[in-house]
Amino acid sequence: MESSQQDALVGLLRPGRSLDVKLPPGEQFVPHGWTKPAFWVSDEPVTPHQWTACRTAHPRSGLWPVLMYDLPCAVIDEEADPDRWQAMRRIDEIDVEALMASAACWDGAGWDGTDFRQSWQGLASPGVPQEPADVRADRSIVDWPSQEPCRLMLVPADRSADVVASIAWRLFNQDLVDPIASSAILRSWEDRFGARVTHLGDGVLTLSVAAPPADRSAALRVVAEHLVFCADSLSNDPDDFSAHLDHLTSGDPWSFWWD
């Protein structure tokens, strides 16, 4: 790694880690009140292949790449634990199933007679792998339908789910504003559905999915989890809900937005 690039990543690379991918021009982003950088971000939009190169290098660098729609500084917690690694160790302390069961952020009024609050049956079973999770993540970036210009963000995180906790990104869900709890849910989706964080913005999060639920019945269980994570991600239109179940079984990316 060139010395100039190494200098650009000081405070982000852990001891013994390096990034052997040539980066475009960029800079570190240090949130107000932080003493260390939260992430590195490119000055200009990048190509999907630049994301893929950084993703391939992640086991060596410890920096997970994210395509960023806009600078999410408005939702970074400026009072977060300055020791990100100490903070992220708290993720292991969270019981995701208990968190899901107690959150119940939906109002009980379901679609097609489904009352998720009354019919909660625990976490959904793992999905059916269609291909390796990292391969699916790479392909989802290359095949991204809109190809909206995005800058590249590199976040210190051992796994993609930890990105949210690492930068203390506060989601807009009124029930789950804790980035540590959000990363715990994302870890669970990584393990069960081969999910990977690919895109991030101001109130927007996208995941690639390599092991989607096997059928609409399994997808219905996943919907309940999605509503806990992001109550704004579904409309009340029954036709939209039916299409959403089909979407979940297809293996297409999961997108969440907080209004």
TrEMBL record:
Domain of life (superkingdom): Bacteria
Domain DUF4253: 151-259
Entries under Pfam families matching the protein: DUF4253
Name this protein carries in UniProt: DUF4253 domain-containing protein
Organism: Catellatospora methionotrophica
Origin organism lineage: Bacteria, Bacillati, Actinomycetota, Actinomycetes, Micromonosporales
